[in-house]
## 1
Amino acid sequence: MSTHQPVTLASLSAAMDGGFIAIADVADAMAEVRATEDYRLIGGVAVLLHVQRLGLDLPLRATGDADFGVPPHLLQEAALVPAIEACGYENAMPKISGGASRSRPPTA
């Protein structure tokens, strides 16, 4: 069982704010379908978290999205996509190879 610690990250733009909000939204959706251990945050925000965790004196890496690694079996879970859509996201494209799909953030 992992321990969770709050992290405070600086944001460089409204796009970066949106990425942080998407992380919280997807975490909530995963909790709703009881899949909190079945996905990984990857990409730019993961790099930011590692830099902060290691206390490295590096410039902030700007990113405007939230990337997740999710196994195919979870993407086929009937409740997951509706849980993400309930946060205001919409499916941006039809299913692609492996059953994956991409979601577009809510518009203002």
## 2
Amino acid sequence: MRDQLKTNFLLLGQSQDYYWTFAYSTYVADPNTTDMTAQLVPQILLWMFLDMVSAAEHHIH
């Protein structure tokens, strides 16, 4: 599950970690960056969080 979340959300289907590492580092260094990949960081994190919260495992008490 964890690898699936990583690949589907953080890496946007890509196989190399450097994609997310670059985007996140660029965004953290300058949240107003014009780099289009880095601008997606907040939205990607939101999508991943919403997917995790809606997962069946989250609703088990």
## 3
Amino acid sequence: MTIHTTLADQAILEELATLEPSAEEAPSQVKTASAQRASGAKALLKVGEVIAVSRRIGRARAESEIAALLGR
């Protein structure tokens, strides 16, 4: 299945995926913060997929597509 997002949606999601830890974070926190950001970015990408699906198709089908995206 192909997911279509708007250019604005894609730009925002790509920016979130590339966030770097701040210089104020201690070295041990950088690793944890980076992992959390990566996890959050992946979750946001999944949300973007859900939004794209819901924009494209009706609610009943969207619910089944969303369930499939979430692995349920």
## 4
Amino acid sequence: MVVDPGDPRTILENFVKIGEGSTGVVCIARERHTGRQVAVKMMDLRKQQRRELDYQHMNVVEMFRSALVEDELWVIMEYLQGGALTHIIAVRVLFRLNEEQIATVSEGVLQALTYLHSQGVIHRDIKSDSILLTLDGRVRHPCPRSFRFS
């Protein structure tokens, strides 16, 4: 992924923290000129041990741009309002996911992994927190812990 010039704080507003991991923070924000809601992954470069790349696949979260902000790499990406699979599982604790729903999620994850492997990427952190859904139930993966091999 190539880093774009400029400070994304000039084009984004209304930052709200929605998550935190070992390498940084995830916020939602709004683009000033379009009103589009986006997710912003703010990663401390000192904690990064891999190279994040821009992938184009229906089951991988779309990356819009990236920028260096002080010691952080900010990746501005598609915001998925369906949330993480972890949340869906917790909400449905009283009525379990049926076999067809489980198969749909599994298929989306496997398609994302197949694509990433074809791009030379090994994913090291597959878990329900990092499997995201669109409002209509499509599976997307942000690839937060991947590394490239030759």
